[in-house]
Amino acid sequence: LQQRAGLRAVKSVNVIQNIHRAMSEMRKSECKVAEYVLAHSPGVIHMRIVDLASAVQVSEPTVVRFCRAIQCEGFQDFKLRLAQQLATEPSFGEFALSDGDTTSEFSNKVFDATINILKNVRDSIDPNMLEAAISALCQANRVEFYGFGASGAVAVDAQHKFFRLQMSTTAYSDPHIQAMSAMSLGAQDVVVAISQSGRTKALLDAINLVKEAGGIVIGLAPGGTPVAEACAIPIHINVEEESEQYTPVSSRIAHLVVIDTLAVGVSQAKGPYISKHLQQLNRGLQTLRVKPGK
Predict the structure, then answer these.
(1) Alpha carbons within 13 A on the beta-carbon side of 258
(2) What is the pLDDT of residue 134?
(3) Residue 294 three-state SS
(4) Which residue of 212, 215, 252, 268 is most buried, as measured by CB atoms within 10 A?
């Protein structure tokens, strides 16, 4: 019975998720261990503590502190939990093209890399921030989505989703219009600032204007970046993009999925009448579509 209870306790801890959540409070040396573990998870489960410390170039006590920071009792407990998680979850590799890849091979790589990114983002997102964002959106008089470039496309998609939930929404990707609109917001208004880099100066300027006007800013950006730190409700989307060759822009996909998550949360909070409204919209759209067989 004690062994079964122990196994249940191991299953209850998502090691990868705990690593992502704890990294912002770790020391620099412990973060090095975290980054290595995230990049080499399958190999780490076969390492001794001295092997991991040597690979990361830190001390063994640093590895122990890392383990405790992610709610593990020690190194062996950490390896057990990690091994069990890897055994029960599918693994998808990082995106890496080679010149000899066939269409089928690079197609699989694109899909696998995107799935891997989405899984990592899912495990690292703070549910408390999601709840706070959903609550703010439900209470907002106006909701505006700001973004530039690829993030501007995400903002337009978000505006469309929330517009269907009977909310007053707009999406702006022009810095001058963002500035003018931001200055007209009030205490019950919300801006969702979207940035894949988290360092866009024009977006930071707009965020400051929203805060001066008394509005609430929800940020979708990598953790530890200026955009994330400037927002009242930061939702960290940590995705590393490869800029030296063409690779899938997985961060855009991750942002879209987070927007979908927020929209589902708002829809649930608003209750059954929203479901009826969406059904009416769908029935109305049927008249704009060509019927099957024609």
Answers:
(1) 40
(2) 97
(3) coil
(4) 215
